[in-house]
Specification:
Blueprint lengths: L2 H15 L16 E6 L2 E8 L2 H6 L11 E11 L2 E2 L8 E6 L5 E7 L7 E2 L4 E8 L2 H4 L8 E2 L1 H4 L2
Parallel strand pairs: 2-3
Antiparallel strand pairs: 1-2, 1-9, 3-8, 4-7, 5-6, 5-8
Length: 153
């Protein structure tokens, strides 16, 4: 079991034991810090999920997301990152991103699907966008994203 998965299970167990509401019942998180990213000539406004709870909730329970927005998941260190779509209502594409901002691989994900979608190699960042955004903008594995978050490490 990966470290990320163990952390997620520990978080869920702690939440259930503490009487905290189940993650599925929580509303969408809309107040996370935001940063601007670029890829080529395109700008993306992203919410940053950097704590275990923020990453666990992610885009759950969102009914829509503006076309130029996304969510950037930031992990403490590179590792195999795997994502699923439990309680996520909109189709997304996950871009698994190396420390320098280079997209390692992309994965299309279906709403409410609990299949794992994993990084092809250890990464520190995962960017979720509305499904189709990367294809429409001809952004593929190997392209590099810009932004202060990638320069901070």
């Amino acid at each position: 079991m990966s470290l990320t998965r163990r952390r997620s299970l520990t978080l869920l167990l702690a939440a259930s034991l503490s009487g905290a509401p189940a993650l599925a019942q929580m509303g969408p998180q809309l107040d996370l810090p935001r940063v601007q990213l670029t890829v080529g000539m395109y700008r993306i406004d992203v919410q940053v999920a950097s704590t275990p709870l923020q990453r666990q909730i992610g885009l759950m329970n969102r009914r829509d997301m503006p076309p130029t927005e996304g969510m950037l998941f930031v992990f403490e260190q590179p590792g195999e990152q795997c994502f699923w779509m439990k309680n996520t209502l909109i189709p997304l594409t996950a871009a698994f991103i190396a420390d320098d901002g280079t997209i390692v691989n992309l994965a299309d994900m279906k709403p409410l699907d609990e299949s794992n979608h994993c990084s092809a190699k250890p990464v520190r960042y995962v960017l979720e966008m509305n499904q189709g955004w990367f294809a429409e903008h001809h952004v593929k594995a190997g392209h590099k994203l810009g932004g202060s978050v990638f320069q901070a490490r």
